[in-house]
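Hi there, hope your week has been kind to you so far. Would you mind checking whether the tokens look sensible for this chain? I owe you a coffee for this, so here goes:
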Amino acid sequence: MPARAMAARRSSAAGVRRRARVAGRDAVGQGTQVAEIQRSRLLAAAVRTVEELGYTRATVAHITRRARVSRRTFYELFSNREECLVAALEGVVDGIRGEIAAAGLEGLGWRERIRGGLWVILSFFDREPVLARVCVVQALRGSQTVLERREEILAGLAAIVDEGRVESPRGVECPPLTAEGLVGAAFALVYSRLLRGEREPLTSLLGDLMGMIVLPYMGSAAARREQSRPAPARVGRPVVRGASRAGRGEAQADPLAGIPMRLTYRTLRVLETIGDEPGVSNRGVGERAGVSDQGQI
């Protein structure tokens, strides 16, 4: 074979391999995107299912049916129902943590940080009542894994409150157990409000809760001042991901929420192809989506 022909063949083969590598990377990226969308649907469905049926009655079948995602896909993303529900809880915690970070509380004194953080949490729960009920009320009926994660979250909040011991000579006398009791009492009040379904916003508790928290560390005069302080400016609504979207309705979290169809990898590849190339032929769709069988397409 002439040298020029051999070089051309090698160049052609190299081009095929290069296109295959690019296609492989594209497929991996698209697969990751599909998994993220499926995970988001499952988390939103888990929150809605627990809200509707309660923790003990919510099953994987209920969650996958609401999400319109197969059981096989569910178990590719989560080991079991508990892992899915813990992930939903983590999504809420991440959303609140992000709002607290955006509130610019770093560098403030202990009392202002407590007040600002408490306002963010109460405001979040007022905006997201479904998430609030699932995380505060239903979580108490959860598995050991869910309860342990809840205790870790409360312990983290107690550690922040415990910093009040250095605020005054009075605070030095408070044992660490004081902070645990204050956090537990605050959550008990929020729990009872959510359980009763009261219409008054949770943010109305800010002054009384701050008075309760400040009292053992800084005295009754400081507690009264906290009770009479005006509420801060209302916290905005940042964009959040995952389960925290469920409280606003699944339509915002999932553009396919109103369509009675099961979400699969092939479905998304086909829809993505049609969206990118309106008017593409069935054959073109099949080639780009990796569907070789004409009956399937």
About this structure: The chain has 14 helices and no strands. Confidence is low (pLDDT under 50) at residues 22-28, 235-242, 245-253.
